[in-house]
Design brief:
This protein is of the alpha+beta class. The chain is 43% helix and 23% strand. Helix 1 crosses helix 5.
């Protein structure tokens, strides 16, 4: 897999930022999609807000082994990556929208979403041209272009909407495995 460098300081939301996050998250999504046992353990840790267990599971994935910026709200998880400034991050994760339910995270839904987003994260990680177009669409708030780019790679019917939020993208999924929708987030975040 290609190494990505960011030699100059750039504003967040650049193609390189998105590529770095995608490159780091790819092995995680592959493991969720391919290992039912790992996915079950991850879901259990999310619902129980067991950060220690989440850390141990992440430590088995080389690209995330040293990442200590992760968390849960017991209906989803968030893995963050710092960029350029101490308090500025890109956050990736999957969660049920707040206010619908508590202490719920469905392993089948998560595995289905992981399988669905793998081609998108692969393309972001591998193609500088695609990542530049993707980042440009986000910066220009061009939802139509972003939707076309995502739907080409994530053609599943369970993908209900694609939104630009917080200098990133939010994919809303509704699967047959749960009455609740789930959001896959790739957004800019400020940690205080």
């Amino acid at each position: 897999m290609a190494q990505i460098s960011n030699r100059r300081t750039r504003k967040p939301g650049t193609a390189n930022d998105l590529r770095k996050v995608a490159l780091s998250m790819l092995p995680f999504y592959k493991k969720i999609a391919c290992s039912r046992e790992f996915a079950k353990q991850w879901s259990s840790a999310v619902v129980k807000a067991d950060l220690g267990r989440m850390g141990r599971l992440l430590s088995t994935i080389p690209s995330l082994a040293n990442n200590e910026d992760y968390g849960t709200n017991a209906i989803g998880y968030f893995i963050s990556f710092p960029f350029h400034q101490p308090s500025l991050y890109y956050t990736n994760g999957t969660t049920i929208p707040p206010g619908l339910v508590q202490f719920t995270f469905n392993t089948k839904v998560h595995r289905s979403i992981a399988r669905s987003v793998l081609p998108l994260y692969r393309k972001l990680a591998a193609s500088g041209a695609f990542a530049r177009s993707f980042a440009g669409a986000i910066r220009r708030q061009d939802t139509a272009l972003l939707t076309r780019m995502v739907r080409r790679l994530v053609p599943t019917r369970s993908l209900k909407s694609i939104r630009i939020e917080n200098a990133g993208v939010v994919l809303l999924f509704k699967t047959r495995f749960s009455i609740y929708p789930y959001r896959n987030l790739l957004i800019r975040d400020v940690h205080r």
